[in-house]
Amino acid sequence: MSNHEQAALVRQSLKRRYRKERRFRFYGILAIAIALAALVTLFADIIGKGYTGFIKTTMTLEVRFDPKTMYLEDATDKDAFSMADFKAPLLAALHDVVPEAGDSDDRDLGHLLSSYAANKVRDTLEADPSLLGKTQTMTFLVSDDVSVYVKHADDPNYSIQLSEKQQGWVDQLQERGIIQNSFNDVFFQNGDSRDPGHAGVLGAIVGSVLTMVVTLLLSFPIGVAAAIYLEEFAPQNKFTDFIEVNINNLAAVPSIIFGLLGLAVFINLFGLPRSVPLVGGLVLTLMTLPTIIISSRAAIKSVPPSIREAAEGIGASKMQVVLHHVLPLALPGMLTGSIIGMAQALGETAPLLLIGMVAFIVDVPSGFVDAATVLPVQIFLWAGSPELAFIERASAAIMVLLTFLIGMNALAIWLRRRLERRW
Amino acid sequence: MNTMNSAIDQDVPVKDEPETRGGATFNDAELEGRTVGKPFADDPKFTLRDVEVFYGDARAIKGISLDIAKNEVIAFIGPSGCGKSTFLRCLNRMNDSIDICRVKGQLQLDGEDIYDAKRDVVELRARVGMVFQKPNPFPKSIYDNVAYGPRIHGLANRKSDLDDIVERSLRGAGLWNEVKDRLDSPGTGLSGGQQQRLCIARAIAVSPEVVLMDEPCSALDPIATARIEELIAELSQSYTIIIVTHSMQQAARVSDRTAYFHLGHLVEVNETNKVFTAPQHELTESYITGRFG
Amino acid sequence: MKNDEDVYGDHISHQFNEDLAGLKEDFLRMGGMVEQQVVDAIDALIEGDGHRADEIRARDKQVDQLELEIDEEATRIIARRQPAARDLRLVLSVIKMVADLERIGDEAKKIAKFALSLSEEGKAPRGYVETRHIGNHVSQMLRDSLDAFARLDSELALRIMKEDKRVDEEYQAATRTLVTFMMEDPRNITRCMSVMWVLRALERVGDHSCNIAEHVIFMAKGEDVRHTPMEEAEKVVSN
After folding, report:
1. Dihedral of alpha carbons B130, B135, B140, B143, sign
2. Domain ranges in chain A?
3. Do B249 and C82 touch (CB under 8 A)?
4. In principle, which of B47, B217, B258, C111 could form an S-S bond with C41, CB 3.0–4.6 Å?
5. Alpha helices for A62-143 (secondary structure H)
6. 0.80 exceeded by the pTM?
7. What is the dotted CATH code of the domain comprising A202-419?
8. Contact B276 C13 (CB under 8 A)
9. With a cut of 0.95, is the ipTM above it?
10. CATH class of the domain at C14-238
11. Domains, in order of start, for chain B
12. In this complex, which of A240, A305, A310 lies closest to B2 when CB atoms are compared?
């Protein structure tokens, strides 16, 4: 074959190769585009549904603490106080702002405000009895139905529960600036509640943080120690092989099994209380350990043997080699592995359901043995709840959870960049 | 457990068939215990008799007897897989970390057994330092690299003592003038040749009696190699140096005696001049004249 | 040590084999040329052939040229191949032996010069038998030394070293005879002196052949036997 012919053949095959290459690149880009589209859709959906969860609708009223309508002469008298009518001043104030409503509309009018509004009047007066007989400007959350109407009047997914008359009042109050939307600080200040307007994620966040603290404090030291022992000190025999296989298998065990284990061991056997972050942390530790051990071992393995040899060559003992050289070099890898394991644990629901962290808990937990729930469980609870207003709460909570996860992943990347040194 | 160490990759005999192109082939019986030349010395630092090393069932070193004299430079040469690195690593028990590796025979440093059960390997390695094939400074500062050995062995109680040791070692390795203004910069930032000299400085910082060098120049360019060779000549005033090298010219340049290894046997040991002008064994001859690979 | 032909082959580098073979071949070619010069010079002297003597003197230029070429080749091998052991000994010895060959060539030229002058002045009355005898002896030595080199035959080389002693004795005897003759008849002194110089040159050829033989022993055994007693050399060869 002449050189010329050969060159022609090569040229032909080149064309074919380039076509193949272009096709391959196209498939790659297509795959990424599909993934991105799915991600964007997910985020758009969650944010679209959830952003209203960060908005609260309030009504500002001039409340006159009228001793006569409240049947309360002396605000310091405990018995009288408990018998007093705290709805009356609210109704009066509502009549003030909605003059066209007659006496027969009391019921419809009262329905505009959240059922907790009367509690707020009571609490205010209890805190300052001298207000009796005076007038005070107060802001109240509106009822769920009003809130849904204000935020989602045009959304066919939401059914409006207000009557035509009520809708007219609300429109009018909104125009006059008496009904307003503002940032939902309540969402971050409260625990769970039956009333969507008062339900918040603070309890779940604190519960998650407490659980994570327990998980981190237990799983990181145990995981790293186990990895170092297995990698550096353990003899190579059937027993260590067996342990290794089991650790790898544990990483693949469905998380709900860990929940069952936690229920059987920690609660039934050790008698620890249900629904507490301590037990949640213990269960999640079991679940995270294999991940941490595997990633830590990989990090230790990736330390170049030349560094080990160098240290051994000038007479460092095994312990010194590990502590002075292997561990510092493996630490970034161990930390990233651990943080990713923690992020997994943060998003875990199933095992926690089994140890009772699914209970309805209003109070923000104040310790490791207080009943608590965690973010993903809170989302699970709200998403399953019949009230429409909880759906936007669930989406908002998902956003909070995602923010935490992204934050943790960012921390992992930052730590790796920060600690990783070239050798 | 890191069972697969770089030493295994380099030096486990891959095949049992001697690969010779010219000349006759030799079997184990013809080579074992029949080292030609001058394997023994009057004033030995190391006394090694009938040394055997096994990797599992494979015999990597097959009965080697050799003396290494005080303050001599001895070069180990031989084709890949001939056991020269394995043998070198026996001398400061670097093979200990390999589970499947066993060492038999008599190995003595100044008349004391190296592999004695009571022998502290840390103390041994403080006396027998090692420089590796690839420059492997710790990812720490130049100062910390050199100071690491003295620190862990407790050789310096005060900062000023440590400073002295670091300066003396870096001067000894011919690196002081190049790095004295940047002792805090990372050792990994130096050039390859400088890194290797830093490793030599690190090894001599603990004042060893013997320095083992495992192909110290194989990753370096000719200029850096020449510097290291010059350094070896200087170091030989105060240290016994055992160097494994793939470069026959390097062995010819730096060593007083040359030992030729072949498939786990020590075939010939003699004065370097003698080995390179008139080797006595046919295998040595074939190897150094470039007749088999 | 092996004594077969191809001890300089078998390198991994094919080119190295060829370089060494070329060096050896060129050396043997030069040796053959020089040997022919010596034989021709003796013939020219004995036959009184002035024309042939002239040819010999012209051919010496070629010998010198070959010496330069071999030296250059050897230098190139050292610079490019860094030969060791056997190969190093070959190259080193060739460099030195080539000087010996060149000197032998010079001696042949010298003999040719005397052959020319004797052919013009008329034959010397005595000494031709001795010249023929010693001439045959040393040219055989030269041939043998080249053979020993070609075959790396240290035993043959040792025999050549011993032969040299005999050549020396023959030379002593021949000069004594000539001196006696010159004392008897002073008119022959000039022509007899020429023959004496020729004998002297032949003796030198023997010495140079002996040098070559010593180098062959060095090449084969790696021991330098120059300036050592004969017993020492014998021990080296028998090893």
Report:
1. positive
2. 3-51, 55-184, 202-419
3. yes
4. C111
5. 67-70, 78-83, 87-97, 106-110, 117-127
6. no
7. 1.10.3720.10
8. no
9. no
10. mainly alpha
11. 32-136+191-288 (3.40.50.300)
12. A305
